[in-house]
Amino acid sequence: MNRYSNIAIALIVLSIFAGGAGAVPLEEWNKTFGGRFEDIANSVLQTSDGGYVFAGGTTSYGNGLADVWLVKTDANGNMQWSKTFGGTGFDKAYSVQRTSDSGYVIAGITNSSGNGEFDAWLIKTDAGGNMQWDRTFGGTNNDGVFSVQQTSDGGYILAGETWSYGAGYVNAWLIKTDASGNELLSRTFGGADFDAVFSVRQTSDGGFILAGETWSYGAGYNDAWLVKISSGAGTRTITVDDSGGADYTKIQDAIDNASDGDTILVYSGIYSENVVVNKQLILRGIDNGGGKPIVNANHRCVNGRCSAINLSAGNSILDGFIAIGSSVTWPDGGGIVVNSNNNIIINNTAWQNSGPGIFVYSFI
Fold it and tell me: What is the pTM of this model?
């Protein structure tokens, strides 16, 4: 089934089971919610006041073709409030969880905002369902998340599928964020065919367990799939701030002490250096009030490197930087120079460079 269809056509039936072993399940009550068009609830949980909150999608209310829909009820299923989130396109929620501050976190899809046809969408609300922040994740194709949980460190773990990244036609996708929804880790799993995960939970050892389906492995046409991920997925998050208070004050120092798969978060500031990304890393600029971090090469070359940022290791992510001050020296002249493959380069700005803003000189 295409989860990115512009028409929601699912029916959810809830039964309440009461009593001990051998008890006959009895329906206590049921409620319907919606307007004249198609509306759906995909995820539900009981709240601390004995009521319920559900998340899904609505084509009856909101701004666009379909909107994310969050509804709170009392213990008898009577609506207390209703919130919609979305733009002019198709937006839908698949998972809702309560957060430690008594608010809610919602995971789903959007094609009203983001980079691709559909992007993964993470929404954080307060206890009254008012949006506090939202984040989108994804590439140029269809990407979505179908499960979310707050983790023991206060951040969030999301799981779904990606058509933009990974080795196969569609790959299972795991995203880890900090408490503000900033991406710390992105990993894909799967083979050459279609693989996706629909549920993720943190395990007692600090790792994660994923449940979904695989068309790449197993005995059948498609098979149930359970994937265990180690704590931290074997990676670290390293911070850089030129004013101090972080792990490092220089980006290159952080890279030199990182390992493949690590995430480096670089906070607002001006970094006068020639950065060489020679490992498979996530290098992400974080605007913490001072704008995107600026990497200034100061029109100089260091060890033959004349660019502000050079991506010499493939399978890396460069996100959220301003690259300035490069020199015109072959073959490393340019604000951002790419001489490796399978990189993701998004949300960057290159200007005031003697060479080109971005220069790809080796593509195999």
Answer: 0.67
